[in-house]
Protein backbone atom coordinates (compact mmCIF):
# COMPACT_ATOMS: atom_id res chain seq x y z
CA UNK A 1 0.00 0.00 0.00
CA UNK A 2 2.10 2.82 -1.28
CA UNK A 3 -0.55 5.47 -0.56
CA UNK A 4 -0.75 4.65 3.14
CA UNK A 5 3.05 4.82 3.50
CA UNK A 6 3.11 8.27 1.92
CA UNK A 7 0.29 9.44 4.17
CA UNK A 8 2.11 8.13 7.24
CA UNK A 9 5.24 10.10 6.30
CA UNK A 10 3.34 13.37 5.86
CA UNK A 11 3.89 15.93 3.17
CA UNK A 12 7.39 16.80 4.40
CA UNK A 13 8.85 13.31 4.68
CA UNK A 14 9.86 11.12 7.58
CA UNK A 15 10.09 12.87 10.93
CA UNK A 16 8.89 16.32 9.80
CA UNK A 17 5.47 17.49 11.00
CA UNK A 18 3.51 20.72 10.70
CA UNK A 19 3.00 23.00 13.67
CA UNK A 20 -0.68 23.79 14.14
CA UNK A 21 -1.17 25.31 17.59
CA UNK A 22 -0.81 29.01 18.30
CA UNK A 23 1.11 28.31 21.51
CA UNK A 24 3.82 26.52 19.51
CA UNK A 25 4.19 29.51 17.19
CA UNK A 26 4.41 31.88 20.17
CA UNK A 27 7.04 29.69 21.84
CA UNK A 28 9.12 29.74 18.65
CA UNK A 29 8.76 33.54 18.46
CA UNK A 30 10.49 33.84 21.84
CA UNK A 31 13.37 31.58 20.81
CA UNK A 32 16.27 31.90 18.36
CA UNK A 33 15.83 33.78 15.10
CA UNK A 34 17.72 34.60 11.95
CA UNK A 35 16.75 36.79 9.01
CA UNK A 36 17.59 36.23 5.36
CA UNK A 37 16.77 38.16 2.21
CA UNK A 38 13.76 35.95 1.42
CA UNK A 39 12.29 35.12 4.85
CA UNK A 40 12.85 35.04 8.60
CA UNK A 41 13.57 31.79 10.46
CA UNK A 42 12.69 31.14 14.09
CA UNK A 43 14.01 28.01 15.79
CA UNK A 44 13.17 26.52 19.16
CA UNK A 45 14.55 23.33 20.75
CA UNK A 46 11.44 21.72 22.28
CA UNK A 47 13.04 19.52 24.90
CA UNK A 48 10.15 17.03 24.85
CA UNK A 49 12.29 14.04 23.87
CA UNK A 50 10.53 13.44 20.54
CA UNK A 51 12.68 12.92 17.47
CA UNK A 52 10.47 14.83 15.06
CA UNK A 53 11.16 18.16 13.41
CA UNK A 54 8.14 20.46 13.34
CA UNK A 55 7.72 23.39 10.98
CA UNK A 56 5.21 26.21 10.68
CA UNK A 57 4.67 28.92 8.09
CA UNK A 58 3.21 32.39 8.37
CA UNK A 59 2.79 35.42 6.15
CA UNK A 60 1.15 38.59 7.39
CA UNK A 61 -0.85 41.01 5.29
CA UNK A 62 2.36 43.00 4.82
CA UNK A 63 3.40 40.32 2.33
CA UNK A 64 0.47 41.27 0.09
CA UNK A 65 -3.03 40.18 -0.78
CA UNK A 66 -4.25 36.60 -0.33
CA UNK A 67 -2.78 35.50 -3.65
CA UNK A 68 0.68 36.81 -2.75
CA UNK A 69 0.52 35.34 0.77
CA UNK A 70 -0.50 31.91 -0.50
CA UNK A 71 2.23 31.99 -3.17
CA UNK A 72 4.81 32.94 -0.54
CA UNK A 73 3.68 30.13 1.79
CA UNK A 74 3.80 27.59 -1.06
CA UNK A 75 7.39 28.63 -1.77
CA UNK A 76 8.32 28.40 1.91
CA UNK A 77 6.73 24.94 2.15
CA UNK A 78 8.70 23.75 -0.89
CA UNK A 79 12.00 25.00 0.54
CA UNK A 80 11.23 23.38 3.91
CA UNK A 81 10.26 20.11 2.21
CA UNK A 82 13.64 20.05 0.44
CA UNK A 83 15.88 21.13 3.30
CA UNK A 84 14.47 20.22 6.72
CA UNK A 85 14.64 16.41 6.49
CA UNK A 86 18.45 16.66 6.13
CA UNK A 87 19.26 19.99 7.82
CA UNK A 88 16.70 20.20 10.63
CA UNK A 89 17.53 18.91 14.09
CA UNK A 90 15.27 16.34 15.76
CA UNK A 91 13.35 17.85 18.65
CA UNK A 92 13.26 21.37 17.17
CA UNK A 93 10.41 23.60 16.01
CA UNK A 94 11.00 25.96 13.09
CA UNK A 95 8.81 28.80 11.83
CA UNK A 96 9.41 30.35 8.41
CA UNK A 97 7.99 33.86 8.07
CA UNK A 98 7.46 35.43 4.66
CA UNK A 99 8.84 38.90 3.95
CA UNK A 100 6.94 41.69 2.23
CA UNK A 101 7.40 41.92 -1.55
CA UNK A 102 10.26 39.40 -1.50
CA UNK A 103 9.23 35.84 -0.60
CA UNK A 104 6.66 35.42 -3.37
CA UNK A 105 9.18 36.36 -6.08
CA UNK A 106 12.52 35.17 -4.64
CA UNK A 107 14.45 32.37 -6.39
CA UNK A 108 13.71 28.94 -4.86
CA UNK A 109 17.33 27.77 -5.07
CA UNK A 110 18.53 30.93 -3.35
CA UNK A 111 15.90 30.45 -0.66
CA UNK A 112 17.16 26.89 -0.12
CA UNK A 113 20.72 28.18 0.31
CA UNK A 114 19.43 30.89 2.66
CA UNK A 115 17.58 28.30 4.76
CA UNK A 116 20.69 26.14 5.03
CA UNK A 117 22.71 29.18 6.16
CA UNK A 118 20.01 30.34 8.60
CA UNK A 119 19.69 26.86 10.12
CA UNK A 120 23.44 26.79 10.70
CA UNK A 121 23.31 30.18 12.41
CA UNK A 122 20.34 29.25 14.61
CA UNK A 123 21.91 25.93 15.59
CA UNK A 124 25.21 27.62 16.46
CA UNK A 125 23.36 30.01 18.82
CA UNK A 126 21.76 27.12 20.74
Automatic annotation (TrEMBL):
**Pfam families noted in UniProt:** Ribonuclease_P
- The reaction(s) this protein catalyses: Endonucleolytic cleavage of RNA, removing 5'-extranucleotides from tRNA precursor
Could you cite one Gene Ontology molecular function of this protein?
Answer: 3'-tRNA processing endoribonuclease activity
Where are the membrane-spanning stretches?
Answer: none
- Could you tell me which PROSITE patterns the record lists for this protein? RIBONUCLEASE_P
Record-listed E.C. numbers: 3.1.26.5
The top EC class, named as a word, is: hydrolase
What Gene Ontology biological process does one annotation of this record name?
Answer: tRNA 5'-leader removal
GO CC annotation terms, alphabetical: ribonuclease P complex
Which controlled-vocabulary keywords does the entry list?
Endonuclease, Hydrolase, Nuclease, RNA-binding, tRNA processing
At the top level, the lineage of the source is Bacteria
Q: Which SUPFAM superfamilies match?
A: Ribosomal protein S5 domain 2-like (SSF54211)
Q: What does this protein do?
A: RNaseP catalyzes the removal of the 5'-leader sequence from pre-tRNA to produce the mature 5'-terminus. It can also cleave other RNA substrates such as 4.5S RNA. The protein component plays an auxiliary but essential role in vivo by binding to the 5'-leader sequence and broadening the substrate specificity of the ribozyme.
Q: Which PANTHER family match?
A: RIBONUCLEASE P PROTEIN COMPONENT (PTHR33992)
Q: Give the family, as the similarity comment puts it.
A: Belongs to the RnpA family.
Cross-referenced HAMAP family: RNase_P
Q: Record's NCBIfam families?
A: rnpA
* Subunit description: Consists of a catalytic RNA component (M1 or rnpB) and a protein subunit.
The name this protein carries in UniProt is Ribonuclease P protein component
Species the sequence originates in: Limimaricola cinnabarinus LL-001
Amino acid sequence: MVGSDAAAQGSFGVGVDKMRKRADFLRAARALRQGTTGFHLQGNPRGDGLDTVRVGFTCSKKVGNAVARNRAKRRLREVARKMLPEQGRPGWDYVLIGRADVTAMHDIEQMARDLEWALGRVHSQA
